[in-house]
């Protein structure tokens, strides 16, 4: 299988799962895909990332930074829990 065999959503979700595995292993946090609207990706931070003062850096540095390496035109937003 090649990259073209997967949809945009599948590719994004796979990357987020890999990022989350790293964050879970080393920091006790998590990130999960909530939804995709156009080129905007909404994610939910969990575990140790919840209420962490460094979560904006995690969101923009780790999550958005990694996803933009593959999809430069996407926007990453955090979904807030209600």
TrEMBL record:
GO terms for biological process: iron-sulfur cluster assembly. It holds the Pfam family NifU. Residues 13-75 form the NIF system FeS cluster assembly NifU C-terminal domain. One of its GO terms (molecular function) is iron-sulfur cluster binding. InterPro entries: FSCA_dom_sf, NIF_FeS_clus_asmbl_NifU_C. Coiled coil: none annotated. May be involved in the formation or repair of [Fe-S] clusters present in iron-sulfur proteins. This is NIF system FeS cluster assembly NifU C-terminal domain-containing protein. It comes from Candidatus Brevifilum fermentans.
